[in-house]
Specification:
- By secondary structure, the chain is an alpha/beta fold.
- It has a single domain, classed as 3-Layer(aba) Sandwich (Rossmann fold), CATH 3.40.50.300.
- The chain has helices spanning about 45-50, 70-80, 100, 105-110, 120-125, 140-145, 160-170, 180-190, 200-210, 220-225, 230-240, 245-250, 255-260, 265, 270-275, 300-315; strands at about 20, 30-35, 35-40, 60-65, 130-135, 150-155, 215-220.
- Strands 5-4-6-7 form a four-stranded parallel beta sheet, with helices on both faces. A three-stranded antiparallel beta sheet has the order 1-2-3, with no helix packed on it.
- The longest helix is centred in the middle third of the chain and has 15 residues, at about 160-170.
- It is globular.
- The N and C termini lie far apart (about 45 Å).
- Mean pLDDT is about 95; it is low at about 1-15.
- Bound molecules: adenosine-3'-5'-diphosphate (A3P).
- Adenosine-3'-5'-diphosphate binds next to helix 2, helix 7 and helix 14.
- InterPro entries: P-loop_NTPase, Sulfotransferase_dom.
């Protein structure tokens, strides 16, 4: 089939499974699809991504579980990869939200609508192409796994991930869904019924692949990034095959990237104060507190015990811990 024929691939030719549509920690209904909780609005986008995406060896994909530091990692990766093209004073990250510069594969590029052509969009992109995705590793298109494209994954302590998700998704809730109370959202999170969840399978999918193929998947944690941004920006550059030279290091190029992408800098930029990503999302929603441990202000002792148990149960033996 010619590539243009596969635009907006619908899946008439794929088997139809009964899809459960349920309420979960998300701004829309979730469907249990290919063993993960996919927002109903994005199912066609995920299918189209799986069916039509042709990876290039130079592609870079920032993958994450929602609310774990995606925006920050996208900004750091974009600034690192494109450091030769832009000066600190005239940088696109000063006037564009990171999600505008690096589009999400399932929710933007392959989002099925009448007005844009994903394959045309992809064919017009300069290399290396940078993308983001929340799709679990096991549901990524074959072509992405089989190519030499690189994946950088970020995850976060589930306590802070939950809190950030609860606050964010309540602000985005699509009518007629009512906002979720803390306790009901927490039960959903502990059951794994959360957008792109279960969160443990999401993390473990990328975690295992990063152990099996360290040149394919770089696995990062928000907390580690916070502790030593400089070290991780260097490791991102090395992983992507564009290490900083001694001269770049002594010129302070890593520090410039860290500063440009810092929470304090990004959240006060005009584009992130009053801009919109699309008709639903205000850019300012991506920047809340940017701290580790805010969950202590919200969790009861029984919530702490319960989530600690789930983490222990789901991650034990994997080598991944928080
Ligand atoms: P909080 O809600 O805990 O503040 P995502 O980008 O995956 O949606 O994650 C959002 C979380 O990352 C939010 O956490 C947000 O404040 C934080 N964040 C956004 N930009 C950041 C940055 N440049 N540095 C550190 N944290 C950032």
């Amino acid at each position: 089939m010619a590539s243009t024929d596969r635009k907006h691939a619908n899946v008439e030719d794929e088997p139809v499974f009964p899809i459960r549509r349920e309420r979960g920690l998300a701004p829309t209904y979730l469907c249990l699809f290919q063993e993960f909780w996919c927002p109903d609005l994005f199912i066609e986008g995920v299918k189209s991504f799986q069916k039509c995406f042709e990876a290039k060896d130079s592609d870079v994909v920032v993958a994450s579980f929602p609310k774990t530091g995606t925006t920050w990692l996208i900004a750091l990766t974009f600034a690192t990869v494109n450091r030769k093209h832009f000066s600190a004073e005239n940088h696109p990250l000063l006037t564009s939200n990171p999600h505008t510069l690096v589009s999400c594969l399932e929710s933007k590029i392959f989002f099925v609508d009448e007005i844009h052509d994903p394959l045309l969009h992809l064919s017009n992109m300069l290399e290396p192409r940078l993308f983001s995705t929340h799709t679990p590793f096991t549901a990524l298109p074959k072509s992405l796994n089989e190519s030499n494209a690189k994946i950088i994954y970020i995850c976060r302590n589930p306590f802070d991930t939950f809190l950030s998700a609860w606050i964010y998704f309540n602000k985005l809730m699509l009518k007629p869904l009512p906002a979720l109370e803390l306790e009901e959202a927490f039960e959903m999170f502990c059951d794994g019924r959360v957008i792109f969840g279960p969160w443990w399978s999401h993390m473990l999918g990328y975690w295992k692949e990063s152990l099996a193929r360290p040149n394919k998947v770089l696995f990062l944690k928000y907390e580690d990034l916070k502790e030593n941004v400089n070290f991780h920006v260097k490791s991102i550059a090395e992983f992507l095959g564009c290490p900083f030279t001694a001269e770049e290091e002594s010129d302070g190029d890593i520090e410039s990237i860290m500063k440009l992408c810092s929470f304090e800098k990004m959240k006060d930029l005009e584009v992130n104060v009053s801009g919109k990503l699309d008709k639903f999302i205000d850019n300012k929603l991506f920047f809340r507190k940017g701290e580790i441990g805010d969950w202590v202000n919200y969790f009861s002792p029984s919530m702490i015990t319960k989530l600690s148990k789930v983490i222990e149960e789901k991650l034990s033996g994997s080598g991944l811990s928080f």
